[in-house]
Amino acid sequence: MIGTAVAGLAAAGIAAHGAWHRNSVVFGPVLTRLPGDEPVVSITFDDGPNPRATPRVLDVLRREGVRATFFFLGRHVERWPELVRRAALDGHQLGNHGYYHRKLHRRSPGFVRDDLTRGTEQIVRASGVRPRHFRAPHGFRSPWVTPIAASLGQRTVGWSLGVWDSARPGADVIAARALEGMHAGSILLLHDGDGYDPAGDRIQTAEALPAILDGLRRRGFRFTTLPD
Ligand SMILES: [Zn+2]
Fold it and tell me: Which of 14, 64, 76, 112: CA 20 to 30 A from 210?
């Protein structure tokens, strides 16, 4: 059945790159923006927890009274479960980012299921929370990634706006890009961790966060977590 679907896509001439794109619906439905026209936005973080950046991010969110969504990586959850527990206790939404942080578009169904299941288990073990959202590393999917996430009770999520904060362009640049690109319903992608280096430096993102939250509020935006 899946083989037939792949052959069908190829026959239809759908460019593979487009299908793998984070917001493409070719490989199943993906949440790319919030429903409705309200001036609300969602702040999401990938690749944490990280021992330096995540506590600072959580401090800022607590001080500002903002709830965000963290797509935690199982491999890092295993090392710093207390940060995941704290995010849950602070009222944030916990999402699954898998365990290994491999690009999933060329991986077998067995690999994908194992990766997503291990990621889920780490988050449950650390926090008692069963994640209801999944974001693929780099947004790369195949015909079976979204159905496997759905079978685990997780809605696949993309993003509206990425600001390349992981390239560390400076906190001012990160904040400016976020404020320029946000619209009603936007889902902002930030990184409180590094998908490959557990101790990777994401302090610039934490430093940019107060200006992002303040600037968005000045523009009339409110903050919300992701719908189920
Ligand atoms: Zn990632």
Answer: 76
